[in-house]
Amino acid sequence: MIDTHSHLYDEAFRNDFPQALERAVAAGVEHLIFPGIDSSVHERMMECAAASGGRVSVAVGLHPTSVDDNWKRELDFVEARLAEGGWAAIGEIGLDRHWSDKYIREQVEVFRQQMLWAAEAHLPVIIHVRDAHDTVFGVLDGLAEAGVPMRGVFHAFSGSIETYRRIRTYGDFRIGIGGVVTYKNAGIAATVRDIPLEQIVLETDSPWLTPVPHRERGTNPPISGWWRRK
C-alpha cells in the first residue's frame, strides 16, 4: 500500500518521525509520497525523506496558501529545485479560496506556471483544490486548449461525480481519497462508490484530514485502513 500524500515531515512528528514511519510500515504502508509546500519546510522534508531508508519519494511545489507577497521568490525556489531533478511529482499545487481571495490572481499564475513546468519535465502533478473548482477548471481549460499534456492526482477530492468526470477530460488524473470519506456531512463516500476503483489512490494528508475514529489524535499512515474499508 502507498500513502500517496503524507506530510509526515511536519512539526507534529518532529519528535517521533522514525517511530511514525515504522508504524506505517508495520501497518502495510510500503511507500509514502511527501508533497512540497514552500521553501520554509523544504529542508525538513528532505531530511526526513533521506532518513526513510528509501521508503519516501518527494514532490516539489508551491502550495496555494503559501502564495503571498513573496510568491515570485518562492516560485524561483521551486524552479531551482526542479533543475536538480529526482522528483516524483510537482506539488502540492493548485488553488485555495477557502480563507481568502486576496492572492487569487497570483495563485492562478503560480498554478499555471507549475503546470507548464510539469509538462516540460514529464512529471505528474498533485493538485490541491478548495472552494475553487471553477477557477481551477478555467486554468485547465486554457492549458488543454494550448495542447499542454496533464496527468497526476486531485488530492483530497471533495467534488461530485460530475466534477470527477470533468477532471478526467483533462488527462490521466487519479482521485486522492483520505479521511474526508469518513465524514458524515462531506457526502464523499457516496460519490466514491461511483468512481472506478482503478482511478482512486489512497492518502492520509497526515497530520491533517484525520478520519472520524481518530480525529482527536491526529492522522497517521496506518489509519488509512479505515477509509480503505470504507
From TrEMBL:
InterPro entries: DNase_TatD-rel_CS, Metal_Hydrolase, TatD-like. GO terms for cellular component: cytosol. It holds the Pfam family TatD_DNase. A divalent metal cation 2 binds at H128, H155. A divalent metal cation 1 binds at H5, H7, E92, D205. Keywords: Hydrolase, Metal-binding. It comes from Candidatus Coprenecus avistercoris. This is TatD family hydrolase. Belongs to the metallo-dependent hydrolases superfamily. TatD-type hydrolase family. GO terms for molecular function: hydrolase activity, acting on ester bonds; metal ion binding. The lineage of its organism: Bacteria, Pseudomonadati, Bacteroidota, Bacteroidia, Bacteroidales.
